[in-house]
Write a structure and sequence with these properties.
Catalyzes the oxidation of erythronate-4-phosphate to 3-hydroxy-2-oxo-4-phosphonooxybutanoate. By secondary structure, the chain is α/β, with parallel strands linked by helices. Helix content is 32%, strand content 15%. The structure holds nicotinamide-adenine-dinucleotide and 4-phospho-D-erythronate (DEZ). 4-phospho-D-erythronate binds next to loops.
Length: 388
Amino acid sequence: MPNTNVNTFTGNNESKETPSTRTLTIVADSNIASLDEFFSTQTLGQDAALTVNIVSVAGRDITAQLLAEVQPDVLLIRSVTPINAELIVDNHSVRFVGSATIGTDHVDQAYLAERNITFANAAGCSKHSVAQYVLTAILTLRPQYWQPSSNQPVVLGIIGLGNIGSTLAQYAADLGWQVLGYDPLLPASAFNNASFDEVISQSNAISLHVPLTDAEGMNRSDYPTHHLLNAAALEAMPADSLLINSARGPVIDAAALEDNIEQTRRQVVLDVFEHEPQIAEQLLSKLAIATPHIAGYTLEGKLRGTQMIYDALCEKFNVTPAQSMHNLLPVNMYLWTELKEYPDRLIKFYDIMQDDKLLRAKADDGQVNGADFDQLRRDYHLRREWQF
Ligand SMILES: NC(=O)c1ccc[n+]([C@@H]2O[C@H](COP(=O)([O-])OP(=O)(O)OC[C@H]3O[C@@H](n4cnc5c(N)ncnc54)[C@H](O)[C@@H]3O)[C@@H](O)[C@H]2O)c1
Ligand SMILES: O=C(O)[C@H](O)[C@H](O)COP(=O)(O)O
């Protein structure tokens, strides 16, 4: 068994759906924020006698062997643990899987449904954090966008107008930018107002906010996003348009992107990478800003993710929720209205170039290796979400 932390709690629980024994065993990714504050006797076992065992391990160490040995009732993960038949085929006890993430491309939800295992994710948990990451990247590289003029408007292209895309659109509108948005799965609206071709060919900056989907397989979609930005799409973008990907790495064809940057000298910001957690130094050296998949890593974003799967678990086992992220959050002094008035304070709100510097410092022998990428994420100094 890999390095594990096991905490045992005893409490009271008279849940409507109680686990088959009086012990609730949870295997959890140790990178889930405030795991012990949310998943304890005080917060889960307040109604009837119930013992809660938490086995916390690194997300990549949650293996079929571990699950077969521990036979947990509950599995709590983040984005680095693929959930599929291979992982849980020898496990007969899991009845709830919670992913403290927005993205669900790592989870075979059809298989879980077949096995009658409840699944919950944390939709929208870090929508402001990611939108703020994107704004910071744009305004750091192009501070002139703080003051758009009528003869030089800023046009922000947004692909995918769900929780994050629509939140980003609101900030952009608040800054006086024009938004060109494309989302074929939503009705037309003030922001969902353009075709894919219009967005990529007419924007000063383009930000991607789509889930990772494919033409077939477990993440099948009629509008697949795998390599949505291929060589042809990149070619259709003006050379001076800035491209930001904080969605999932494979939404951009990395090889085509490298060629395109070489030809156009385009400014590109990546928080996610096609071959994550490895990054080739050759690609890294061509990027304007590079960060280790931390766009959503604010204290608020992470705690909201934990809160959402905690609430879903309470509902599953019919336990009254007894913990709230608001009990765990220090005072927040970061106001969007202040930043708008004093743009030179951006670096105090979020110093994105520091994240970029830390990632580049890990490049060695032609690449940033997976262990270093994971370490930067594990030890990330969670920033604060600005109040909008
Ligand atoms: N970098 C990070 O830290 C981070 C944090 C959170 C989320 N994410 C990623 O961001 C993605 C988006 O998050 P969200 O909260 O906005 O999700 P969401 O589900 O609320 O919205 C996604 C939107 O994309 C649209 N879409 C799907 N296919 C499309 C296509 N081919 N073209 C255009 N639009 C399409 C959907 O209709 C939907 O409205 C997540 O799936 C996740 O992978 C990354
Ligand atoms: O989809 C998401 O929510 C994010 O990409 C997620 O926050 C990624 O971080 P991780 O789950 O790997 O910690």
